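Quarterly update, task 2.4: 2-(butylsulfanyl)adenosine-bound model.
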Amino acid sequence: MDEIKRIEQLRKELHEHNYKYYVLNQPTIGDQEFDFMMHELQDLEAKHPEMADPNSPTQRVGSDLNEEFRQVEHKYPMLSLANTYNEQDVADWYESVKKGLAGEDFEVCCEMKYDGLSISLTYVDGKLTQAVTRGDGVHGDDVTANVKTIRSIPLVLTPPASDNLFAAPAYPREFEIRGEILMPWNVFERLNKEREEAKEPLFANPRNAASGTLKSQKSSLVASRQLDAYLYYLLGEELPAEGHYENLEVARQWGFKISEGMKKVKTLQQIYDFINYWDTERKKLPVATDGIVLKVNSIRQQRALGFTAKSPRWAIAYKFKAERVCTRLNEVTYQVGRTGAITPVANMDPVQLAGTTVKRATLNNEDFIKSFDLHIGDYVYVEKGGEIIPKIVGVDIDQRPIIAQPVEFIKRCPECGTPLVRYEGEAAWYCPNDSGCPPQIKGRIEHFIARKAMNIDSLGPETVDDYYRHGLIHNIADLYDIDVQQINGDGSRTKSAQRIVNGIAASKEVPFERVVFALGIRFVGETSAKLLARHFKNIDALMNAGIEELQEIEGIGEVMAKSIITYFHTEENLKIIERLRNYGLQMELATQNSQLSTKLEGQSIVISGVFTHHSRDEYKIIIEQNGGKNVGSISSKTSFILAGENMGPSKLQKAEKLGIKIVSEEEFLEMIG
Ligand code: IVH
């Protein structure tokens, strides 16, 4: 067979195997054989560049993009659905449909409400040409390259040929199909476990994980995250059938993954039965669902019912109640944060809750424990909020064992044994041993190296932990004493050791504002650190400031002022600062000298979009160097918007509404000369 024919054959077969594996869940060949065919195709395509095809099965792992996503206007706006939470709401909707159709018979298509990220796919001549996120409903991000990595989304539709096992009705020349992109529960759990091990921030739920993944600029990362997609809405000028359900059944034959549970019913009782059945059955599904969607089936009737400003009258969402489970509280353990704050944690019998196994829940503070009168051995009700850690929402007193003991909040630090203190007006207990308590010491060093502080990214929490355990570092100043010999292991890690040492040395150029933040003074965040640095201009003035002077600064309150005084009255901290000064860290405000002009004096400027000549952060500095102020959001006080490419549509709308001038990158650079 000639190579061109072979390419075509391999493409066809790989598309089919892909479909059997990812959509039908019924592979007919092994992974190895699949990979083998894929490699053969890759080799042949490399030899025949004239055969390049963006929809070839080899193109699922796209190249890494390096631009922000292009914004695309939706051909049909992407609306949302009105939500309902109980049977009465559903009955009201059913009645309103009946009335809207003047008593005409109608059918309702019931389907799962998938809890992911909505996506609109465009197919032209049977090929996926574009994938766009919902965005603001009018414009979305073009994420085609990333979506192509999702194996259950067909790149090429099964052709309606009669000799084909997957023969399907013909597809329209052009149509859109909408659905939800999801991260399956098992992938989500594995991802979070890996992130926990790598001490990376966890995703609160599969939806956030899917969203973070799809917005990534690296298609290879997207491919590795194994996203899935269910489709639920076909749109276009010439659809195959008059019913929504029937259209989706045809789309299923074209190769799309359609909700398994989809069902057409007539009566209100049948709708309730569907809801009740899936309220429990959905827990067995591989992906997150948060309700049921009800749609009037006939497209003609849908048209007759029409839309309100926000959502269709012909469809409605019924949301399930948050899942709640009951499990046994076995032990309360305590975590010590960077600031010494103690957080109690409930350790419970593991239970399945909304798709994942749960065995810990936060107890916030002592008052929270008291409010539930928690006893060890209690059966507690647990729910998942939007947060990563589930919360306890109640106790079943009836199940309390007779001998159960109330939870006693600890009196001493679980890490260093120091008696805890509780400051007036604060809910948390603190370990006051800042300079001797390991998690506080490590926490402060981790804070110091963080991106928004000294930005020493050659170091991570694990390395900090390692150096601390080996006695190499006890405080932030010790970092600057590290030399290559100490950390190159048996001599085999010279290169990475050199990188770490260089990274630490480079931080000596980090501006004073960020040094103030990096010190980790309790209650002093990024913004307050900036205020302090700008007001006092150097570390000596800040160290000698009195409580009144501190409190006079707008944005610095009493609690923060007191904390700053305490920090600079601690011998240990003064020694550290002296050492940092001697190592050459920036201990005074640089902008005094680098003030270039007053051309932007008194102006509040919003930065939006993507730029070519400088980065966003550089523009922030340029604005300040010319006397202007960079602000985050548009208001009537905004002087102008410095707009790059692809400024967000909501910002644009707001700017237009308030009549705020939009200045391009070039105009801006000219403006400041
Ligand atoms: S239909 C005009 N069907 O829920 C109707 N939406 O609040 C278009 N969703 O943005 C939507 N499962 O992201 C439809 N079976 C389903 C759905 C579904 C989940 C999401 C979708 C939409 C939101 C509506």
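Highlight for this quarter: The chain has five domains: 3-52, 71-319, 322-429, 438-591, 595-672.
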